[in-house]
Fold each of these.
Amino acid sequence: MLLTNAKLVTLKTDEEFGFIADGAIVLDGEHIAWVGEASELPKTYGDQKIHNLGGRLVTPALIDCHTHVVFGGNRAVEFELRLKGASYEEVAKAGGGIVSTVTATRAASEDALLTDALTRVDAMIAEGVTFIEVKSGYGLDCETELKMLRVARQIANARPIEVRTSFLGAHAVPSEYIGDADAYIDDVCIPTLRVAHAEGLVDAVDGFCEGIAFDTAQIARVFVVAKELGLPVKLHSEQLSNIGGTKLAAKYGALSADHVEYATNSDAKALAVAGTVAVVLPGAYYTLRECQAPPIQAFRDHGVRMALATDCNPGSSPLTSALLTMNMACTLFRMTPLEALLGMTAHAARALGELNRGRIIADAPADLCVWDVEHPAELSYRIGFNPLHSRIFKGTL
């Protein structure tokens, strides 16, 4: 298919939008065969089926590289408690937080979990998302962690979207192991990771390195097994405090370090050396009414690539909107519209280990968004507005 009469935002490099005012794109199956000025279209592509985009703006499709879309129940009551003054940590220590979602997720069937997850995924698709990461971590026992990963795999069969799964067994200490996190890592987390890998359910391994979850030594034990199994790692780090998670992620060559509100300049330097992406999650910052913003300027200074994601989850970020995420990143953290768009495309892809995705270049996947806007900055500027005209997924409009 030949796409014509389009304003292209290629994101060919990280320094500029890569704007082509009168562009054309040749799609060959699921990949881009050629992209450039319409006047320079090679004659060999002249006989393709033509689709006129009416002068609309075209960007790479959006990518949500950090989600928890598979879960049972909701935590609206805890939202109310926090508004009355309870902190995230206080809610967690009182038996709420992640542990309350664990109870609901353990009780839910696979069909129920899938049905609920698809409502969230549909909202993402409606804003131009074609690729998501989905984490486990609300089971904290072998049976439920595997159930969550199976449901995550089913999403791609039920909807036109690509899915990567992350095993997040080291998300929280379940009630039956309170006070003995090490035993949970040994008895449940690591054995479950091995089973999940053997069943082909895992693409990466994640953890929550925080005072209310696991320390660096405990996470390191999980990462050692991940490396043994040939799986890449990523980490929730420095969200509520700094206990060394970001440097640990860098040490293990993690795909990404996520949240990173309390990361330091030296943490940023470590990420840069490791090539690890910093995944910024403004939805959680906003919902928890945090005051410590991630060190965006330090990431810029050291050349750390910054991705954005919704962090869609029932507690700290009940957010499904990629566009609102981009607006929050600009408004709350002063990221630029270019950084925000790169964060939801090319850099999000890199955070999932995909280096040839999220740009409109030859040989990249033919995943595109067609927008009813004049300039790409509008995608970050508007609030509660969805200008998506159409979405192209694997070469299909």
Amino acid sequence: MIPFLERLGRKPFQVVWEITLACNMSCRHCGSRAGRARADELSTAEALKLCQDLADLGTQRLTLAGGEPTLRQDWDLLAKTLVSLGIRTNILSNGRTWSRELAQRARAAGLRSVGFSMDGCEVTHDYIRRVGGQWQGVIDAIRLSREEGLDVSVVTQLNTANVAELEAMHALLGGLGVRAWQLQLGNPSGNMADHPELVLPPESVLDIVPRIAALREKGAAPRIFVGDNIGYFGPYEQLLRDQGGPIPFWIGCRAGMTVLGIESDGNVKGCLSLPSAQNGVDRFVDGNIREKPLREIWEHKQSFAYNRSFDRDTLVEACRTCDFADVCRGGCSWSSFSHTGECRGTPHCYHLQASLKAARESQGAAHGSR
């Protein structure tokens, strides 16, 4: 699979850029432990140069993220610059201080869509966000953004507190005119590592995946997109991932292959979700744009080695002996590292959990027949 991805082109087609770590919330599931801005965040001039560097490397889609990205005063200047360079850009906000003025600034910058985080129905969302009334704030943000002509998407991290509300949330978002809904599993990383009671057990995917597939099969709005840590290779895989393209199945983690993450101080990672200094980890930072040009970091032969130098023999046994190992490569790197401390295979794999269940049932049947 790596040679195939190389033939497709090793470019950072999709980038998530944390433009500030400042945040006006302290959510229970925040992987980056956002709150205060980093002491050495990129200046406007540095950020504008980075916009050009990303365009030169072939970036096609980019999300301005945080923290809360609107707390950085030049966010719309960065958005306008990226759009002018031909990069399809959106912004992901928690919605707490979103206003008609911000929606109008987004439109003026050339953004066609905005995204908001929602963590469940009202009580659940406010619990996860630790702020009463925040759920209604997101609802209002969605409505006024739609009124200003912006498409709206929503991102949800699934956890033990909200997983039962999956269908109810889909109906709610559809009624609000939300165009797209991205789902991902919450990982024990950052603040969520301090709340293990929120982490879904691996076997829960046997319930979650069919439910998501059923919602996608209905075809009702919003259209569901699954994150890179949901799936893989069960009977629902095509339903989960078919977006009309030529490859309707999981093709492995693309961090450092076609995906790039940038922190607000200029640190470069294969995926923004992978941990770094905020969580006492430095192994996933492959350079800083203040020290080396972005192109040099991207093209260095030793960068993003966990993907670019993939070795099947490094996987855990269950993944190493799997028929899909060379394609899957152990699943989402962020999930794998969060759960095991290494990028060697995630336990939240549908194919793995279905196989384990089948083995248990077969063993139970054998004992019962004695």
